[in-house]
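Structure in, sequence out. Go:
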């Protein structure tokens, strides 16, 4: 197991579109385990492979309070979403110390492969729904701040520049 380093916005690699995993083998299981460890180490509720510079469609999440219920989604797809939307204050391990409100569908149905390569489907609401939409965005090269206004994005970029210089 290993802690991976997390790419920070506005690094261009965050805009890479991840490729589908062809075979769920030991290599993929090791990546997923390393991602889970990295997510816990960074105190995150979710992590997409894109964020650790691995451009394959792998997401890990843990929305439990106890931090002992990690879930792995390989090749996740949103196959249904509610018409109702919800506002949620989001943050991201790739955009430290930035939190802002994003509006997304309230509930989603997600289909993915598990670590045994088996297909499963899950209906999500609350934090899990937000988190999976946020992580699947990463696999599509999109960071949550891109849901915000241009003005806010510019402010966030200059804030991060200042953090880097500090
Ligand atoms: Zn993120």
């Amino acid at each position: 197991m290993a802690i991976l380093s997390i790419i920070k916005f506005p690094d261009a690699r965050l805009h890479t579109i991840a490729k589908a995993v062809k075979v769920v083998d030991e290599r993929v299981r090791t990546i997923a385990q390393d991602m889970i460890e990295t997510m816990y180490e960074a105190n995150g509720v979710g992590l997409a492979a894109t964020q650790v510079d691995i451009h394959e469609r792998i997401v890990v999440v843990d929305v439990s309070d106890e931090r002992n219920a990690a879930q792995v989604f390989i090749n996740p797809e949103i196959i249904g979403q509610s018409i109702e939307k919800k506002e949620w204050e989001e943050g991201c391990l790739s955009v430290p110390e930035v939190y802002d409100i994003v509006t997304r569908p309230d509930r989603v149905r997600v289909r993915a492969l598990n670590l045994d390569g088996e297909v499963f489907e899950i209906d999500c609401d609350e934090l899990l729904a937000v988190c999976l939409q946020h992580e699947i965005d990463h696999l599509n090269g999109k960071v949550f701040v891109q849901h915000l206004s241009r003005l806010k994005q510019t402010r966030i970029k200059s804030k991060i520049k200042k953090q880097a210089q500090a």
